[in-house]
Every structure is written in structure tokens, then in C-alpha cells.
TrEMBL record:
This is Glycoside hydrolase family 3 N-terminal domain-containing protein. It comes from Talaromyces atroroseus. It comes from the Eukaryota. Residues 630-707 form the N-acetyltransferase domain. Keywords: Carbohydrate metabolism, Glycoprotein, Glycosidase, Hydrolase.
Amino acid sequence: MAPKDGALPPIWDNLDRQMGQLFMMGFDGTEVDNQIRSLIEDYHVGSIILTAKNLKSAEETTRLILELQTIARDAGHPVPLMIALDQENGGVNSLYDEIYIRQFPSAMGVAATGSKRLAHEVASATAQELRAVGVNWILGPVLDVLTNLRSQPIGVRTSGDDPQEVSQYGVQSMKGYQEAGLVTCGKHFPSYGNLEFGGSQADVPVITESLEQLSLSALIPFRNAIANGLDAMMVGGVALSSAGVNVMHACLSEQVVDGLLRKDLKFDGVVVSECLEMEALTHNIGVGGGTVMAMKAGCDTILLCRSYPFQLEALNGLKLGVENGMISRSRITQSLQRVLAMKARCTSWEQALNPGGISTLTKMQPSHTSLSTRAYDSSITLVRDTNNLLPLPQILDPDEELLLLTPLVKPLPASAVSRSMQNIMNTSPDPEKSSSITSGESVFREFGRALARQRSGRVLHTSYTSTGVRPIHESLIDRAGAVIILTADSNRNLYQHGFTKHVSMICKSQFSQTGERREKPVIVVAVSSPYDFAIDASISTYICTYDFTETALQALVKLLYGELSPTGSLPGTISRSQKIHQSRQHWLVEAWNEERDSKGLEALLDTVRESGAHAELTSVSAHSFLLRNDDIEEAHFVVRNSTTQALYGFCSTYFFRSTGTGVIGSIIVDPTRRKLSIGHSLHNRAIRSLLQRKGVKRFQLGSRLPNIYLGIPAGNPVERKRLRQWFAQLGWNTALSRPVCSVLLRPLSSWTPPEGLAKSLHTTDVDYDLVYGWEYAESIFDHIKTNSRQGVMEIYKMALNGAPHSGIIRAKRPEDGAILGSVVIYNSQSAIAEYIPTLQKKDKEKNKEKETNNQSNGSGSGGGGGGVSSPVISPMVGEYATLMQGLILLGIKQVRKSGADAVMLDCVDGDGNFDSLTAMGFTVLHTFEEVTCDAATWKLMQPA
């Protein structure tokens, strides 16, 4: 047992015995083999992970675990083994026994019930069953937040996309497990909710969110679980790549484990590494080296799932790390104390050698069966039934045939921890992979039989694949009176999405024998991720079951035939935003009329400024939003009082043809009329308008032309959080925002360049020149085509057209004159300056100051400000930073020559290194978060 005073008994003086306790290892087969026996007897391994490949039934599992514990006792282990298992329910169960082990909904299915109490009950029942067979450690709860709903393989294994909701259900599940006597292991820190995948097993899945972004969303459930007594945490084998963090494997990183998890989140429980047998790690680092790195990072338990050679390599690697001084003995002792303390909470030799077994499971069976039925019945969700197709008997005559179309899917993944994320993504059927849960095809066949038993008419059933709608499908559709289509993660298996839409289209264009158009009823059921068609109103009847286990589909049969009234609802933000959308007012949104609305907009801007928010609007007038540029299509909208002409809301939109970008440049609502859906109405009209633009490829929040809002204002943390949540509810993926800002340098009259910077420009093999006019357009446009950011092309055109008040500084290669980099410069009389309200403010301040001091204005620019804008560096350039500094330095000098006393950089990447700009004297004016998304996202969300 764990020592209370921190000192370890003499039996733990042996280094091999200490190190063995710090490993969790698995093996192949349903019987104890010589390899796992040797790991326990000779290497003192203290934790065993069992997966679906080890488990045949509840009775065999009890026998197997008892044998493992007996081997450990006879080998002289001072404490029992930890026996760990994945049992997430839904599609991820390691132990399945149709007689003694009950099936419960997935984490998202439980969240769909809306009952935290039910989550606690389900977790407790799951843990009671595992405890009865000898398991003492459950690898759960899953605490990931789906910050990317569409393409993440974590799917229904987590409670959803709302961090607070994931926290609440995660904590209740954790408490249910602990109440039944198991210790817990949260996963997958820091997040599997938004991963980017490479093309092979050797590519590590990547988290691209910054630590700040993770802290605002993904880390919330982990933080709350820690505060409520989480026993252990599994750190994932994912990479992190964002500003301030560049980590190849999270579980090997001191910045993630010791810094973020231990110090920032104050976690002092057992930290478990992801399985070090993953191909990405073995390929890039090696298991032995990875084991040492994991221990140095702060992990207490190293996981190796099945390969005996890898397991020996890990054991030897850790011992070598201690012997050569890379890992201290005190570090080993620290982890050992944590592991022993956890063991003391959940097991003893008396408990380990006397599991309840089948007799205990038999006593639980009636109550757990009832709980399983209640949980599934409460989770099933009817998202839409626009045409009132349910229940089926009211639309389908007994002599009509019902067609069931199901996808070909592989068996449900039974053990998540033994599979790489890449394997979980692969949904093509693989008969070589076994699972303890019935395969999808078998369950779907049984579902078809259950439908047939429920009705006297005939049920036609066939599958579909990536080959699409075949003649056999068309023939069966033509015969059937109604069609049911099942989908399983169609956002990751796009053939399912296309097939469903195609069948829906066929059914909508059916004709009766008399030649009249007769739409054939179609019911779509998502049997895994509920997001397949959650926002696609063209699918008029849409049901979600959250998994395709037999119990889930039994509940579906009851719903289809009217024996069950669905009470489940989509968890997270989609459900909430739909409810908000249904309940909110719909304001009349009108197109902007300059003559009619200018005065009203000026009054609205004054009202917003008086509220003390949005410093960005300080120098903005009604005309600041109007570009009047032939290369940019603009359309603006208002919500107004038609009687008084007062504006309650204003929205500006722009379409940049050069990049195919549709931009929402601003949404401004009277502060006294917030929360009345004015902003929602303006946003919806803006999106519909931009979708009509020919060639639109992507959408963006924030615009550099005009330079008012570069994105979501980020200066005030409270307001920033509110706006991020508001836009997220509208469908924008704010988790992938990009920080941008505007910076200012003044006064130029006393400014001197940093020492050595000017001199360094003369040592680089680059020529700089300043050009004006359209004769240079061809070579410059050819150069800036490498930049796809909206507004850049338009600013360069304005600069070429605005001589002598604007020009372009070029950096060229001496030998051939190729342009390596460029930047636009302009003064306050340039057309560009008209779209920079902040610069206009500085001009007014400077002129007022001169009038006060009775000074004459001797400069061509009025002595105010100028700007440096839109640097474009060729992607082939190696010395990016040096070239950028050179262009900006020359830009500053040129603006100062025009008589300006301030220079503004109007759109700077906020995740870059500010040291060079700070060293040059720049200060930050306003900060924003620029958000972009593909136009296809909005097309999917629009009603048919």
C-alpha cells in the first residue's frame, strides 16, 4: 500500500521492482502466455491493459484476471496488479457478453438524454459490472470537446461540442465509476476534438489550436475533472503546432505534461502516456528513447499495448536512462508513490483474489437491463419530421414495401486505446479485424428483420457503398412505398452523404401512375455521429441513435412504429442554436440606401461609441464602409424603424473577386436593443447575399478594406469571449481564428532606426527601389499572386493608381531583377488612407495640435500620418524576416519624407514575432481574430 509519510518500505528499494510498477502492458490472446507471465514475474510490471482481443465472455474474463493476479501474488508483488479496460459504451467496449454485460449508449447518446443523473447511473452500472470480473481501472471518461464537429474520429465517444456540457457529463461519469470502486483515467489530454491528419500512419495527428484557444474551450472539462478528483490522465500521442508551442508528441513533452497539466492545471494524479507502439513514434524516435522522454516529461505510467519486443525495449530503455543519469531515482520514486496511492484507493489482495464473478453479475442483470432500455429510449432523437412521416403505419399501407438502405461498415471499434487515431478513421470493412460487438452488417440485418416483424408488409433490405446509386437501388426505390436510409459518420465517409442526397432527390421527383408528382417518403437515420445531416433542412425527417448497437436499433424500431415518443435532443451548440433560431424574432432586413440611411448610421455609430465599447469605431463615419471599388462587390444591410428612420442594426459585406472571398466587414447593433435577434437577422441575410456571388470560395469575418474591423475585436477579454460564442453559435469555427492587429509608429520626427538595422540592409544581396504608376503593374501583379489574402490585390491596384501619394517598394534580386518582396506605402492624401479610419484620426489629432501651437503646415501630407501596407514576400525567399524588416524600414523612411509624423501598419499577423516590430518602435493599436471558412460550410447550412 502507499506510505502515508512519503517514505517507501524496504521492499521497494529494488530499482527493477520500482520501474516495473510504472508500466502498463498488454498481450495477444485470451489465455495467459509466456510473455505476459514473464513481464509480471521477471520485470515486475504492475498494470495490465486488456482489450477486446483478450476477452471472450464475462466468465472467461473473470478467470483470466484472477490468473493474472495470482501470478503477481506468487511472484512476490507487494500490491495487486492494476487491470485497465476501455468500456466507453456505445461502439467502444472491450468486454461484451450478451447475457451478463449490458450495453449502454455512447457518451454523446447519454448527453442526448439531457440527464446528468442518468450519466451517473450508467457509469456506475458499467463500473459495477467491470468490478465484478476483476477490473479495477477504467480508461475513462472521455473529456474531449468537439471543436470541429464534422471530421473528427472521436465522434460520439465524447459528449459534444460544448465544453461546459462535456464537463458536466464527464464529471458525473467519473463519479459514477468511482462510486462503484474503480479508479478513473481522463482522456485524451490536451484534446482529440480537432485534429488534422496526415496521409500515413507515420504522420502524427496535429492540434493546431494555440494553448490560449485550448484553454478557452478544450481544456475546460479536463480542468473541472481534476478539480473533482480525477485519478489519472492519459496524455495523447498527438503533435501541437501553433504560436508558442511546437510539440511532436504531447505525451513526451515537458511543456505539455509538466508545464500545462501539472503546473497550470494543478494535476497531481497518475499521468499515463499514449501507447508508445504507435508507428509515428517508433518511426521518429524509437520506443526506448520515447520511454525516457515520457518519464522526463512527467508521465508516471508508460503504456505499451501488445508487442513483446517493444515492451522489453521500453523496460531496458528506462533502466538505461536511470543508469546514465537522465532519469533520477527520486523521479522514479515520485511516480511510484503516485501509482501506489492510486492502487490503495481501488484494490487489495483480498479484493483482487475474490472477484464477484458471474454470481454478482446475475444479481445486477434485471436492474441493469432496465437501465439500458431506459437510457436508449431516452437518448434517441427526432431532429426533424417536417412532413409528419412518423409513425410509419400512417404513411405506409400494409401491402406497400418498405426499403432499408444501409452502408457497408466495419465492426464497431471495441477498444480505443489499442487502436491508433488513423485506424479509427478508417471505416472500410475489414474482415480480419475482430470485435467483441456484433459487426455493423449483422446488426443492420437484424434491424431489417425487426422492422419486418413489426409490420405485416414486406421489408426490402440492401447495402450501399462508395459506388453510389446502382440500378438495383433505383429498382428497389421504384418498388418501395417508403425508404429508410442509415448513415454512419457521413461527414468522414462522403460517399454516404452523396448517396443519401441522391436517393432523396430521386424520391422527391417520383410520379404516380396518373402522372402526378408524388414525393416518396424518405427517413434518414444517423446511427453514429448526429452531425451527418443535423443542419441540412432538405432531409425532412431525420433521426439520431448515436450508435448502431442492437439495443440502439431496437429503440429505433419502437420510434418508427409509434411505440416510443422521442425525448432526446442534439447535445451541444447545434441544438441550442436551432432552439434560438426557432424562438427568436425575424427582423425585416433591407438593403442599404445611402441617401436614406446615412444619417441613421451616423446616429447608430454615436450610440455605440457612447456605450464605451468598440474603440475601433472612434473615427468611423457612415461613409467609411463604402469602398466604391470596381474590383470589389459590396452590399450592405440595415434593420430600421421605417417610421422614425432610426437604424437598429447595420451589416457591411464585400466580395473580393481576386480571391473569391466573401467578407462580413461589420455587424453593428444598437446596444439598447441587444438580444432581440437583430444581429442574427443581419447575419443570415449577409450569408445568403454572399452565397449568390459567382465564384465565392470562402467566407471571412473581418476585412482589411475598409480597415475598421479586421475580425472579431479582441481588445476586451469579456467582449471577445461573448462575440466568439455568438459567432460560434452561428456556425463559424472560432477555434481556428487567426490573430491580427494594427500597429502604429510615432512620432517620426524623433524616431531613429534600431542600431545596425540600416547597415544590415546594405550587406544583403538585395536591391530596393520605389516605383509609381501602372507601367510596373505586370511584374508586381505576377509577384503578388503568391498571396491569396483578401484585399491585397485591391490595395496594390489603388497604390499604382494613386501616384504620387502612394507607391510600391520592391526588393529585387540583382542578377535578374526578380521581385523577392514588396510593400505598399501611402500618405494621408492617398485613396488608401480614406479606408483607414485610425489613420484619419491621427491626422485630425496632428492638425489640431498644429493649430493649437499656431504652426504652419509645410508638408504635402498635412503633417499627419502615412501607412505601410500589405507586405508580400516570395515563398522562395529564405531570409524572410530580414527582407520584411528591410521593406518596412524603407517604408517608414519614405513616409517620413512626405512630412508625416506617424506611420501605420494596417494588418499584421498577431501570431508572429513582435520583437522586430517592437524594436523598431511600433505599438499595438487594435487586436482582432480573423475567422475564415469554406463557402461549402454555409451552403450546407442553408435550407433547400
